[in-house]
Design brief:
alpha+beta
Amino acid sequence: MTNFWQRLHLSTSDEIKSLPAYDHSTLAAIATCPREGMLKYIHHREPKGETVSAALRAGAAAHRFFAAWNGFLNLDLIKHVFTKDELLNFTAAAEAGEAEYAQKMFALEALYTNPDGLQEGGRKGADKIEASCLFWADQQTTKPHQIIAVEQQFSITVDNSYRYVGLMDLVCTGVVSGLYYPTEYKTTVLIDDGYKLKWQLHPQTTGYHIALQLIYGADKVTDFVMVEAQLLPLVKRPDAQLHMRVPYVLEDWHLQQWLDWANTQVAVIRASENVAPWMITIEPQCYRFRSVCPYLESFCVFDPETREEVYNTEMQNFVWEPYRHEQ
């Protein structure tokens, strides 16, 4: 693994200014569907009238709750997450009551002041998010860890050619081991064996674990990533799992696999970034196995003449505007 770590380092100020940066959302979109990923994340196009989905709004609001909860006892940890005015308002909201009650009020204030418009779904929708968040908070009382950072930013340089950037939801240390580990929060409509399995070799958690080792030193970081998922909304089924907190152990080959995966997506981007959006016809394996992909020529159901007409129509329905990155 010596050669592996020689290919990665924390980005310098000059590299931050000069090298292209890609986060997990960008690389995952390219891996899933190269043409759509290029349109949205590289060419910054998205369909007219496309809005943030209710699920994304709910997830963003819940993450604000999680961040505020974790930073309640140390506002310095979340000064980069919330504005100064918000922190003052949150503090005022938490002045009365016992510690646990005050912490909940502090986090709920963050939940309802989120910029993505939690109330757009109506009070009923907001209540569902609040109920899930409060249930999540009730699961936090016995966790044996110390919080080191909330929404830890990072930028690592890969092969001196591009930067991998992102935000870790939480960095903790175990009370017994004293070693650091990242925690990634997720909201989902279903927690089952399949959901748990998908995080075993997930590039997002693997990439974050690599970044954590570069920030704090490999000897101070555990060999696992914690994934904590909260069901949203809560369901009234006796067999439903409402909350999940599972450590996923990583080995050296997982890290090498992540590097190969990231470099593959960046190679796709570089091969297409100077090509007109409607001409992107890269042909890697398509992971949209449940339907025929209308983007890649090798999977396209249209004949060449119809395909050109479809592409031209599609381009007319796209507008230039920044794409909203998922949480």
